[in-house]
Design the sequence.
């Protein structure tokens, strides 16, 4: 089964690579139109997945990730339409020059070819990946989790119907509709047909793919995200940034996990931010210095941090808080406990901001902003296939340009090498 899917994807990728930008936009518009017509039925199908997940006692933060409400679907559709408005990077010529031998040289952007994505819970990934892949002329093989298989099958049926309506092969977007894990192992060995593998899930999935794949793997999406509150900061504004980073949607990878506070700001800032967060239902895991300042005997929402609490991606309304002596200690903590996803500083000190941005080695580094903006849509990219936390071949939100590679084009006039 999987070999046929991979072969069909390779064949479809050759067709997609020849499409014009207008043709690709027409496909995405048709998908958006059909999604809009089927919002009600998609919500109903998704509810079946949600009910099954709750019966299986799936953690609530995972349930939240698989829910498709009408508003969430409309937002995804809007992102899909936005992708049609973005410039197609395929065919872009750049780095033109002529060496001393007289050749004319340039690079041109081309699709990667066939991309496989393994992911859990989030059916929006199905549409984000399909939309970006089709816009860049790539075919995709999707393998979502068993907890959302009904929703994903319905979404892919809609996508393939739109492809057929545009006289394009349905092999351009395919879904492995069996929850059997043997297909993951088989997929990882299909380097003959698949050009890139992107796992989106927990650390175990990433480790398994890195160790077993013969296909180039891009990992990311696991975020232990930090904000450092410097001593020179607008306390009221900083409280709201921290609140947003933690509370706006706590179940995603760019939500705040650890708050670091400069000791010179801690006495004034900690009570303010703790009250705001506790009122929002956040549980705090604090170090001993913060514990003394907060005097939490009357609050059940504050506990002394355990030995592993600063190494956790909470994905829930829990936040670690630690007091640090200075900027250097904050950077050192992030280096030791972070995952190179999204980390930021809240400060009025330009030199501190510059040093933080220079030294902190994360895919996204923030100055005076919530970490929740590490998102393709929020950064004007339409959506993203993944948030890469590695250096090759892409880093941060992977959108249109990151789904391309390039070839060299060398033009001569019957040149021969001497």
Sequence:
């Amino acid at each position: 089964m999987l070999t046929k899917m991979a072969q069909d994807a390779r064949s479809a990728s050759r067709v997609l690579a020849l499409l014009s930008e207008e043709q690709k936009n027409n496909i995405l518009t048709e998908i958006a139109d059909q999604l809009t017509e089927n919002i009600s039925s998609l919500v109903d199908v998704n509810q079946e997945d949600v009910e099954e997940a709750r019966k299986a006692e799936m953690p609530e933060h995972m349930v939240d990730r698989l829910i498709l409400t009408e508003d969430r679907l409309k937002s995804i559709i809007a992102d899909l339409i936005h992708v049609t408005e973005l410039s197609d990077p395929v065919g872009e010529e750049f780095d033109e020059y002529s060496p001393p031998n007289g050749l004319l040289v340039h690079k041109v952007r081309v699709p990667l070819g066939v991309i496989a994505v393994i992911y859990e819970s989030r059916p929006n990934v199905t549409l984000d990946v399909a939309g970006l892949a089709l816009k860049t002329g790539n075919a995709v093989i999707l393998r979502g989790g068993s907890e959302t298989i009904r929703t994903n099958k319905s979404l892919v049926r809609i996508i393939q119907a739109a492809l057929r309506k545009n006289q394009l092969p349905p092999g351009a977007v395919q879904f492995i509709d069996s929850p059997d894990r043997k297909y993951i192992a088989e997929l990882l060995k299909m380097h003959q047909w698949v050009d890139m593998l992107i796992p989106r899930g927990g650390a175990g999935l990433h480790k398994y793919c890195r160790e077993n794949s013969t296909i180039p793997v891009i990992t990311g999406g696991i975020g232990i995200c930090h904000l450092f509150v410097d001593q020179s900061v607008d306390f009221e504004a900083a409280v709201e940034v921290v609140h947003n980073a933690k509370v706006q949607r706590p179940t995603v990878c760019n939500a705040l996990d650890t708050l670091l506070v400069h000791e010179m700001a801690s006495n004034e800032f900690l009570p303010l931010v703790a009250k705001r967060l506790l009122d929002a239902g956040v549980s705090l895991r604090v170090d001993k210095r913060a514990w003394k300042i907060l005097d939490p005997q009357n609050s059940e929402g504050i506990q002394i941090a355990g030995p592993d609490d600063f190494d956790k991606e909470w994905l829930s309304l829990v936040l670690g808080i630690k007091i640090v002596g200075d900027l250097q200690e904050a950077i050192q903590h992030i280096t030791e406990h972070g995952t190179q996803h999204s980390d930021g500083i809240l400060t009025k000190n330009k030199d501190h901001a510059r040093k933080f941005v220079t030294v902190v080695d994360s895919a996204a580094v923030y100055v005076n902003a919530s970490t929740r903006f590490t998102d393709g849509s929020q950064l004007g990219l339409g959506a993203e296939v993944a948030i890469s936390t590695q250096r090759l071949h892409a880093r941060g939100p992977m959108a249109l340009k990151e789904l391309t590679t390039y070839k060299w084009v060398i033009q001569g006039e019957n040149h021969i090498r001497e």
About this structure: The domain at 2-218+398-411 is CATH 3.40.605.10 (Aldehyde Dehydrogenase; Chain A, domain 1). The longest strand covers residues 104-111. The chain has a mean pLDDT of 95. The chain has two domains: 2-218+398-411, 225-373.
